[in-house]
């Protein structure tokens, strides 16, 4: 018997795969949603990148329902996303469109999954970004998308948002995650200021189990210094 059921949106990415593995190691049933399968998951729901937002939502909801067999989810964790730089002078629409698809579509679909299939008292975790708390002139599309995720978090935490009773919705706001790709592109950076993927995965596990939960609607900044990470609530 598993401890419960968790859905991870973006479970093939660096952080998502770390979350899938950590939950599996702790005996949880995992459903993974992504553009490709994660073999470690119990169920994989593959999204067609060419589908529009409405079609993606319809596809995901249908497959989540059939995979649960009447059960409910203990947590819906959305760690899908990506990064693009750029200011307003060139390719703003292109970059913003990509960021919206990767961060906002996935977060909104996760919210709908949560509203329909999350247990009372369950967890909906989204992924914002610490830089998006203020202006991001060097990555405008990214900042816009992540700010939208922050707003979505606040809205979902409000009365009559559609989420089940006593559920917790929260966004993590990393600065830089310690991923292989980030190490490749920033080899001279101070890795001691990067947040380990295992820390984030364990944080999600604790919150899923009802441990050390922040206030509903919190934007939780992950601040890492000298390889130690603190949780700092954003204003």
Summed up, what is this model?
This protein has 235 residues and is of the alpha/beta class.
Structural commentary:
- The protein has 235 residues and is of the alpha/beta class.
- 38% of the residues lie in helices and 23% in strands.
- The chain is built from six helices and ten strands.
- It has helices spanning 14-25, 53-68, 92-117, 140-156, 180-185, 197-208; strands spanning 5-9, 29-34, 43-46, 73-78, 118-127, 168-174, 177-178, 195-196, 219-225, 228-233.
- Helix 2 (53-68) packs parallel to helix 3 (92-117).
Over all CA atoms, what is the radius of gyration?
17 Å
Proportion of residues in helical segments = 25-40%
Largest sheet: 8 strands, mixed
* Largest sheet, spatial ordering of strands: 3-2-1-4-5-6-9-10
Shape: globular
Order of helices and strands: EHEEHEHEHEEHEHEE
Low-confidence stretches: none
Please work out how many helical segments DSSP would assign: 6
Report the mean per-residue pLDDT as an integer.
Answer: 96
> Could you tell me the strand content as a percent range?
15-25%
**Total strands:** 10
Structural class, judged by helices and strands?
alpha/beta
Distance between the termini: 41 Å
